[in-house]
Design goal:
Strand content: over 45%
CATH architecture: 6 Propeller
Mean pLDDT: 91
CATH class: Mainly Beta
Bound molecules: calcium ion
């Protein structure tokens, strides 16, 4: 009997230990950041979209009457080219695919298409939801609408080809805002937070959280600012930059993982 009891105790302990490890394996990784470089950013730019394409920085800005699409010199923050939207449109996310720039609007259910070379508006498209963030995986446009859903759109027909729900454990992650496709993952600003969520672009499963608390240098702030928003990644240099709405600075950052994934490695 004692032998049997010992086995039961041992099994219970194993369940406890491996159960904990299983939980660790399922948990998203946690990241903080290191600032690599600080660049100036137009403090009047209500950043809603941010993209690096072939070494150049592009930004979409919001607010009725102040919405724009712009190419920005990274080093100086100076606007190189700009297209101002009509005052009845609130600009949102932008993405560049096949020499075209796509820009969403917030509540107007219309997106605009620009020629990358001329910066002229060459078309528009329509969608039934809010427009929040936009990025591309090189094939599809990927769009957020403030919910936990991300939509993959055909870039010619704008049909929804597929959609994913962003889920961390059992919880849907809502308020997904500006997006960036980074080496097979989707990064999303979560509105009203200093957090960026890292998402498996196939399943929607949350793989990590980046806490950007404290990123904005208070000494550089001379006017009211809004939330962290805007992620851009240069796949050629692996440079990752982030900024915020009305922020006077844009930051090149490096992610630093806080939580070891050793447990998940052990049980695989
Ligand atoms: Ca982006």
């Amino acid at each position: 009997m004692r032998g049997l009891r010992n086995i039961v105790v041992l099994l219970s302990l194993m369940t406890l230990v491996f159960g904990e490890m299983g939980a660790a394996a399922l948990a998203a990784a946690l990241y903080t950041y290191e600032v690599v470089e600080v660049y100036p950013h137009d403090p009047k730019a209500f950043t809603q979209g941010l993209v690096i394409h072939q070494g150049r920085l592009y930004e979409g800005t919001g607010i009725y009457g102040r919405s724009s699409l712009r190419e920005v010199d990274l080093e100086t923050g100076r606007v190189v080219r700009e297209f101002n939207l009509s005052p009845n449109y609130f600009g949102e996310g932008i993405a560049i695919l096949s020499n075209r720039i796509y820009q969403l609007t917030w509540l107007e259910h219309v997106g605009f298409i620009y020629d990358l070379d001329t910066f002229e508006m060459v078309g528009e498209f329509h969608y039934p939801t809010d427009g929040w963030g936009l990025t591309t995986d090189g094939t599809y446009l990927i769009m957020s609408d403030g919910s936990s859903t991300l939509y993959f759109l055909d870039s010619e027909t704008f049909d929804v080809v597929r959609q994913i729900e962003v889920i961390d454990g059992n919880e849907r992650v809502r308020m997904l805002n500006e997006l960036e496709y980074v080496a097979g993952k989707l990064y999303a600003n979560v509105w009203l937070t200093d957090k960026v969520v890292i998402i498996d672009s196939q399943s929607g499963k949350v793989e990590g959280w980046v806490d950007f608390s404290g990123l904005l240098n208070p000494e550089s702030v001379t006017q009211p600012v809004d939330v962290l928003n805007g992620i851009a990644y240069d796949p050629e240099t692996e440079m990752l930059v982030v900024t915020g709405k009305l922020w006077p600075e844009l930051y090149q950052v490096q992610l630093v993982e806080l939580q070891s994934k050793t447990a998940s490695v052990i049980i695989k």
